């Protein structure tokens, strides 16, 4: 059984090389305008394509069956997310107590729907409303 598998492996791996040699001989004979050149060219190209696809399919099939089907455990890789989440709206609106007043969050300028007026780019020093008040 093992000798048969090894023989098929050798055939599968040498078939593209044999196809290349047959194609090269076919091109040479074709350049001499001999009829067997066409046959060798077609046989060589066909064996090259068959060898490449056979090797590809065999490799894919063996990789598919190499998976461990006996293992019933599922490995789930997770990241501890709470520390990576941004702060809530309420937390982001209340500044830390040790910050100076110059670094407090500033409210953006009011939206100007009329584009003919230049927007007022000065920032308001008043604190934005709390989230509960805006609802």
From TrEMBL:
Keywords: Membrane, Transmembrane, Transmembrane helix. The chain crosses the membrane at residues 7-31, 37-57. Residues 108-135 are annotated as: Disordered. InterPro entries: TMEM252 (IPR031363). It comes from the Eukaryota. It holds the Pfam family TMEM252. This is Uncharacterized protein.
């Amino acid at each position: 059984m093992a000798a048969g598998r090894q023989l098929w492996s050798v055939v599968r791996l040498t078939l593209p090389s044999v196809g290349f040699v047959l194609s090269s001989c076919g091109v040479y004979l074709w350049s001499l305008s001999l009829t067997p050149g066409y046959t060798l060219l077609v046989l060589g190209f066909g064996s090259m394509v068959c060898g490449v696809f056979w090797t590809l399919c065999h490799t894919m099939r063996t990789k598919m069956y190499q998976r461990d089907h006996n293992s019933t455990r599922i490995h789930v890789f997770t990241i501890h997310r709470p520390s990576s989440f941004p702060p809530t709206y309420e937390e982001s609106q209340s500044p830390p107590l040790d910050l100076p007043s110059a670094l407090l969050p500033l409210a953006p300028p009011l939206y100007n729907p009329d584009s003919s007026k230049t927007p007022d780019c000065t920032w308001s020093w008043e604190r934005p409303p709390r989230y509960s008040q805006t609802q």
